[in-house]
Amino acid sequence: MNAAELDALLRQFLTDRTLSDAEKKTLRGWTEKHVTTDPHRAVARNRVFDAARGAVADPQAARVIDFLEDVLKVLLPMGAAAGPAPDEAFFSPGEACLQRIVARLTNARTSVDVCVFTITDDRISNAILAAHKRGVKVRIITDNDKAFDPGSDVPRFVQAGIPLKVDQTPFHMHHKFALFDRARLLNGSYNWTRGAAEQNQENVTDTGDPRLLAAFQKEFDQLWTKLT
């Protein structure tokens, strides 16, 4: 999905603050062509609300838009009518892994447990911060060798008050997995960096398998307790 193309359409449509019949037709055609999966829908919905917030100068109006977005995520979560999402695999270079990570963060409602070696991609970090801001319980585990590298977003998480623990051993906390609402697991080789999206051969698996969820949740909780 070309998110930049959607952003351009939204900026154009927002010029007069109305959506004409012709614009609805254009948007419907673009959606039918480009928004074909739940993650696509999540990213598109997120872009729409971002565009609306960017079009208002009144902070109170922006807060109302935040409220509407949060209400829709609770009342109409992605995939709610379709039942459990299937297990899927994604690969990079390209935006497939990135979009799935951002979609899971965008649609998280209760909890997100992140256990990732290095986090430098602002597109992902912004989604983490947004989840924390709307009341999702976020916890992050990462590694000391990368936590405060140039470009690391760990200081942003700390400043925002997100609970975070760092492995200080001479070895690496080299995991790259995250759990969402204790219902979905993302796991693979993919570090949360722009290099992983744009250059590296990487993978992410998205699963709701109860056995894997239990195993990875146990690993996260044990690490969280261990890293005091």
Strand count, sense and barrel status of the largest sheet are: 7 strands, mixed
Q: Based on DSSP secondary structure assignment, what is the total number of beta strands?
A: 7
* Count of alpha and pi helical runs: 10
Q: Structural class, judged by helices and strands?
A: alpha/beta
What CATH architecture label of the largest domain applies? 2-Layer Sandwich
Low-confidence stretches: none
CATH class of the largest domain: Alpha Beta
Whole-number total of structural domains: 2
CATH topology of the largest domain: Endonuclease, Chain A
Report the principal-axis shape.
Answer: globular
Mean pLDDT: 89
CATH superfamily of the largest domain: Endonuclease Chain A
Helix content: 40-55%
Give me the side-by-side strand order of the main sheet. 1-7-6-5-2-3-4
Feature tags:
7 strands, alpha/beta, globular, seven-stranded mixed β-sheet, Endonuclease, Chain A, 10 helices, 228 residues
Task: Explain the overall architecture.
Strand 2 (111-116), helix 6 and strand 3 form a beta-alpha-beta unit. The mean pLDDT is 89. The N and C termini lie far apart (41 Å). The protein contains 10 helices and 7 strands. Helix 1 (3-13) packs parallel to helix 3. With 228 residues, it is an alpha/beta fold. A 7-stranded mixed β-sheet has the order 1-7-6-5-2-3-4, sandwiched between helices.
